[in-house]
Design a protein that fits this description.
Blueprint: H1 2-43, H2 49-52, H3 58-76, H4 82-90, H5 92-95, H6 102-121, H7 124-144, H8 148-162, H9 199-217
Helix pairs in contact: 1-3, 3-6, 4-6, 7-8
């Protein structure tokens, strides 16, 4: 009886493990599929609807339209919080797309963050731009609150990242040294080229060959009376 109970427990445990692995596999597969869909959409993001529908399904094109509008909005306002972007998506991007669930909106935001990263955030200049814009907002808030320390701190940050406290760097033209070309008849200076032995003899052969062909095809001139 003991062994039957233990065997039953093992079977139940095995079943639970198999179910867990299967569910995990299905979840990973679904996530991979979702990711591949967004990658596919990114390739056709700014195409016209007609061109996009050649490669995308109707559902994928609706996602593309949401992401396209959200990317444009995020590039205009790079400091927009995710919650505001989620709200924008859920409301149908200002009435231009279908209303979606919060879960779908967060999926879209993850893809949008990746796409915007590919477009701009990988650039050091973009981070500098974000810092400066944030400091500008901080300066406005500090002035409104009559916070002199806040004003000074934000101005200092703006000055640092715009390099306004430094003189403009003048390019040192003396560092632009032109290449020193030396004429040569040595063909071996070119990669993969070797000199031809007895080159002049080959030249004479070619001259004789082509001269003979010219003579063969030559015809006497005809005088034309005007």
């Amino acid at each position: 009886m003991f062994f039957l109970q233990e065997e039953g427990k093992i079977r139940n445990l095995t079943f639970l493990l198999d179910t867990t692995v299967l569910n995990s596999h299905k979840k990973n597969k679904a996530m991979a599929k979702e990711s591949s869909i967004y990658d596919k959409i990114e390739q056709h993001l700014f195409k016209s609807k007609e061109d996009a529908l050649v490669s995308l399904t109707e559902r994928e094109n609706k996602i593309r339209e949401r992401i396209m509008l959200s990317v444009a909005k995020l590039l205009e306002d790079p400091l927009m919080p995710d919650k505001d972007l989620v709200s924008f998506l859920r409301r149908g991007c200002g009435g231009l797309t279908d209303i979606i669930s919060q879960t779908q909106a967060y999926r879209d935001v993850a893809a949008i963050t990746k796409i915007v990263g590919n477009i701009r955030l990988s650039s050091k200049d973009w981070y500098r731009h974000m810092i400066i814009e944030g400091a500008k907002e901080g300066y406005i808030i500090a002035v409104a609150n009559k916070d002199s320390k806040g004003v000074a701190a934000n101005i200092d940050k703006i000055g640092k990242y715009t390099r306004a406290d430094k003189d403009d760097e003048i390019f040192d033209w003396s560092q632009m040294i032109p290449p020193n070309w030396e004429p040569t008849d040595d063909i071996s200076v070119l990669d993969g080229m070797e000199p031809i032995p007895d080159l002049e003899a080959h030249r004479k052969e070619f001259r004789a060959l082509f001269k003979g062909k010219v003579l063969e095809t030559a015809t006497d001139a005809q005088e034309v009376d005007e």
